């Protein structure tokens, strides 16, 4: 894959990558960092992409790993006041739907975000998150149920 | 459930991705393209295959020399 093709593909999926990182980190600045790191890492290893149709899942996997690295750093920086501040959700751009998602357990949230926001199939989600197909299915079903309840119950939903 | 799915899908399309993020990614992609060094195509594998074939040929050649030497000694 040449640089031009690589950049075109990243540009096509950049919003999906950001949403994925934000679902993990809950912080816009960190999500931006995670995606930037992921793009650079992917660029270095672009020769590993075998099929174009797998590019999105491949990029999402790298982004997930970079987001998890940033998350780990938050825990392993002792005595730093900024670390606590970093772990607080920072969202300048409010979105009601996203607000509901934030209240979900992480295991459901990631699956639901990848399904609804990134439009991934269950098989691709299982590949990106490295969890079995059946687990994705059950998490998605529970996540959907929680979403349905939340949407029915309006904004006062606090149960998740 | 299908109605709920549709509603969530529609709402998810309205998610506000910040402009600062778009600018940052665009800048990064422009920089990558400016570098003008294309990402290596999957050439490593071909190189590996060629090396394997060359290795096998070398082994065959050496073993044929060894065996021909032995045959001469036997005669």
> In angstroms, what is the radius of gyration of chain A?
16 Å
Proportion of strand residues of chain B: under 5%
Question: Would you identify the regions of chain B where 5 or more consecutive residues have pLDDT less than 50?
Answer: none
Instruction: Give the helix level of chain A as a range of percent.
Output: over 70%
Number of helices of chain A: 8
Overview of this structure, please?
The complex is a heterodimer of chains A (160) and B (75). Chain A is mainly α and 160 residues long. Helix content of chain A is 72%, strand content 0%. Chain A has 8 helices and no strands. The N and C termini of chain A lie far apart (43 Å). The relative contact order of chain A is 0.12. Residues 156-160 of chain A have low confidence and may be disordered. Chain B is built from 3 helices and no strands. Chain B has helices at residues 2-13, 19-35, 44-74. The longest helix of chain B has 31 residues, at 44-74. The model of chain B has no long low-confidence stretch (mean pLDDT 77). The interface between A and B is medium-sized, with 36 and 33 residues.
Topology:
The complex is a heterodimer of chains A (160) and B (75).
Chain A: H1 3-25, H2 28-44, H3 55-75, H4 81-87, H5 96-102, H6 106-117, H7 122-129, H8 133-153
Helix pairs in contact in A: 1-2, 1-3, 1-6, 2-3, 3-7, 6-8, 7-8
Chain B: H1 2-13, H2 19-35, H3 44-74
Which features characterize this protein?
heterodimer; A: 160 residues; mainly alpha; B: 75 residues; 0% strand; elongated
Write a compact overview of the structure shown.
With 160 residues, chain A is mainly α. In chain A, 72% of the residues lie in helices and 0% in strands. In chain B, 8% of the residues are buried.
């Amino acid at each position: 894959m040449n640089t031009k093709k690589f950049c075109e593909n990243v540009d096509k999926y950049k919003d999906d990558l950001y949403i994925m990182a934000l679902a993990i980190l809950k912080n816009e600045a960190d999500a931006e960092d995670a995606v930037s790191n992921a793009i650079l890492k992917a660029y270095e290893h672009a020769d590993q992409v075998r099929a174009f149709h797998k590019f999105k899942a491949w990029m999402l996997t790298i982004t997930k790993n970079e987001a998890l690295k940033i998350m780990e750093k938050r825990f392993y920086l002792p005595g730093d006041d900024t670390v606590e501040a970093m772990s607080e959700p920072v969202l300048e751009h409010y979105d009601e739907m996203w607000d509901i998602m934030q209240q979900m357990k992480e295991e459901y949230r990631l699956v639901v975000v990848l399904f609804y926001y990134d439009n991934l199939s269950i098989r691709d989600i299982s590949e990106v998150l490295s969890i079995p197909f059946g687990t994705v299915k059950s998490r998605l079903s529970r996540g959907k149920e929680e979403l349905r309840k939340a949407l029915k119950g309006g904004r006062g939903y606090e149960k998740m | 459930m299908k109605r709920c799915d549709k509603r969530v899908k529609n709402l998810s399309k309205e998610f506000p991705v910040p402009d600062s993020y778009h600018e940052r990614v665009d800048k990064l992609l422009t920089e990558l393209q400016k570098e003008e060094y294309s990402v290596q195509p999957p050439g490593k594998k071909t190189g590996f295959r060629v090396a394997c074939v060359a290795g096998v040929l070398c082994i065959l050649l050496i073993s044929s020399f060894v065996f021909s030497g032995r045959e001469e000694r036997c005669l």
